[in-house]
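Postdoc handover notes: sequence design on the structure in folder B. Input tokens:
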């Protein structure tokens, strides 16, 4: 307990003495408890002064968590000369009952299905050299009734289309119009994430200079990239394996119609070695080829720095690939792969 109290003195200026004592009891209980963590369980494992009522009062207290996280990080872990990136991810905790605030049905990556529980979106600062994540901004996801209705309608429409067996006809739907890609309307999810990221940037101020935000493949789309770029940051993420990629048009303009922007669609597993291949390694009969190029996807309003990692089993000729991208066109492939792999450090906190 004395070691915990000594560490908590760092954030003492932000909290009343009573609240600081309550926090020390809660932290001690969490460190020694076995099984599921509940307020009753914490009260049984804490030392004198950590009664159930004390634990309850602590959880009813509104605390400046963003400032607490930042002050503790700044005083104990920050290395001013180190390089940091921001990594974001959603975490779902299963929860029974009906009265818990924010209780809803969310997709759990661990269970690979939708479960009742609570969902939180976390931004961490990741030290690139140490490969270590420090959680800074945690936002509980509470969906509005309108958002739930929209999500439910989309799911039902998708289910009905699958049941009918009808497939959309090839080509552009009749009557559709060109969309202004510079006028992006962010959905409620991206608005929440943008607010959290903006709050993080305001908190760290001039202490750190952030350039890159790393998000998983769920955010490998233009609205997410637009959101991140609007905050003057670069996004690193993953695209769908069947994404359509195009080089810039390099042919001669015929003089008829609009000037072409895109070249011929690329086959991701048969890219031009001379033009795009950057590295080749072989280990245990697995050939790994890394390609990089400035390419386009028609959903985006700008070119992307694309990195394709293609693995081939030399015994069976089976292949698998991953498509990463960065909105920073000058970033090299090694750094893109490194930074995206560091996103997984947020899972180990």
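Designed sequence:
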């Amino acid at each position: 307990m004395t070691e915990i109290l000594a560490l908590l003195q760092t954030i003492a200026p932000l909290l009343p003495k009573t609240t600081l004592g309550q926090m020390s009891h809660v932290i001690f209980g969490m460190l020694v408890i076995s099984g599921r963590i509940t307020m009753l369980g914490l009260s049984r494992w804490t030392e004198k002064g950590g009664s159930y009522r004390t634990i309850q009062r602590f959880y009813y207290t509104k605390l400046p968590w963003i400032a607490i996280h930042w002050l503790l990080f700044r005083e104990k872990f920050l290395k001013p000369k180190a390089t940091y990136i921001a990594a974001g991810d959603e975490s779902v905790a299963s929860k029974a009952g009906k009265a818990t605030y924010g209780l809803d049905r969310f997709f759990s990556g661990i269970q690979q299905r939708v479960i009742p529980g609570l969902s939180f979106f976390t931004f961490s600062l990741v030290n690139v050299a140490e490969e270590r994540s420090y959680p800074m901004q945690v936002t509980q996801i509470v969906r509005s009734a309108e958002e739930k209705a929209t999500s439910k309608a989309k799911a039902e429409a998708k289910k009905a289309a699958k049941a009918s067996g009808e497939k959309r006809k090839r080509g552009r739907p009749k009557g559709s119009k060109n969309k202004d890609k510079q006028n992006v309307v962010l959905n409620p999810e991206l608005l929440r994430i943008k607010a959290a990221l903006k709050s993080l940037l305001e908190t760290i101020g001039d202490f750190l200079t952030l350039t890159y935000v790393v998000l998983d493949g769920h955010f490998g789309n233009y609205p997410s990239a637009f959101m991140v770029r609007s905050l003057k940051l670069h996004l690193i993420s993953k695209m769908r394996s069947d994404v359509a990629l195009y080089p810039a048009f390099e042919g001669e303009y015929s003089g008829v119609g609009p000037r072409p922007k895109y070249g011929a669609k690329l086959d991701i597993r048969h890219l031009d070695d001379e033009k795009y291949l950057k590295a080749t390694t072989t280990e245990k009969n697995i050939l790994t080829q890394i390609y990089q190029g400035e390419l386009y996807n028609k959903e985006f309003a700008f070119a992307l720095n694309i990195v394709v990692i293609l693995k081939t089993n030399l015994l069976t000729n089976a292949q698998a690939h991953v498509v990463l991208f960065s909105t920073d066109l000058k970033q090299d492939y090694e750094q893109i792969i490194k930074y995206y792999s560091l996103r997984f450090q947020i899972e180990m906190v």
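Context for whoever picks this up: The CA atoms of residues 241 and 330 lie 23 Å apart. Don't rerun without checking with the PI first.
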